[in-house]
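Sample pair:
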Amino acid sequence: MRPSPLRPGHQLVVVSWLVIAALLAIGGLSGAQATATVKPRVRDLGLPIGGTAGPLDAITDVAGVEVGHTTLVSGSGKLVVGKGPVRTGVTVIHPRGKSSADPVFGAWFTLNGNGEMTGTTWLQESGLLEGPIAITNTHSVGVVRDAILQWQVGKPGMQPWGLPVVAETYDGGLNDINGFHVRSEHVASALDGAKGGAVPEGNVGGGTGMVCHGFKGGIGTASRKLPPEQGGYTVGVLVQCNYGARRDLRVAGVPVGEEITDMQPCIASRDASQAGQRALCDTPAAPRRDDEGAGSIIVVVATDAPLLPHQLKRIATRVSLGVGRMGGWGQNPSGDIFVAFSTANSGVGSVPDTASVRMLSNTRISPLFAATAQATEAAIVNAMLAAETMTGANDLRVFALPVDRLRAAMKKYGR
């Protein structure tokens, strides 16, 4: 990746695709500490979410899709705006790979709109997604959008103009969100470093500082492959999860949030004045705050099924069912925004006259609805399974979902 110019005295860890798989438990020590861990995913645990995962169980099971992350981690302790601690980044998805300027059919849907996804007006009007999708923190949407345009116009054959699709969730608990640490070079690194294959998950890219159902959240992905008699199509999903109340958390129908009521976000400091509404981590008997589902989730759905924009709108709405299965209800403070695209029908965006397209019959589309809901649920759980415990701004600590206790809860309910 290209070097990142830093302000004097500002040491920032910029983690590219090549090392993200080793990221990252941020504890109470100074700076960032990367710990290589191999954590189980949904299919490793045999969680009965349903459907058949693709070979990678990732959005990249849809041929041509590439994903890139830039992860920014530095500092610890008290928040100093403009300096840190920094726990943020950017994630990008190229529908046909970074070398292709060929648009895809697409559509979007919002379950609750307390959030942002740029470029959706033209996406809805034209039915075409004309570039990469990016996800970052709430206050970095503008710089990411502009950086995508700079990247596109600098490449021969890419769009000479554009309305990039950039979405966000809020990481202002763990991250110095008002420090505006995501810059254009970080976006370019994610765009250029994107690749197919296994997708790093958890505390990476735009998901670095996110919280999901009171546990550490972030980036997660999953896929579902339909059997040959249903067309053999693939549905891949990538989420940036930062939503949900602990008490509502469900996994394959099991009320995991009711089984794990401790391990709430807390302040990893002995200074009670820093706690505010949070308990200190060493006082487990103190009252615990439940965030009432505040937060957001962004979901990107890819498929190789030949779907037209109005059908992709139907796919995007079914993401809501996967979120609902997890215990997300689209609460008022939440930005739950979803986008879906199809990699079929290549070349239609550049036809000067009449284009011939393929369309799956509506009578065959229902299995894709089920696959979308299943892959969404699995991707959210994968994000939480991959994420590591993180301590960020003002010593806020958010715990990773404990796998042993998840297993115990599933066993208790016969799942």
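Residues 366-386 form the longest helix (21 residues).
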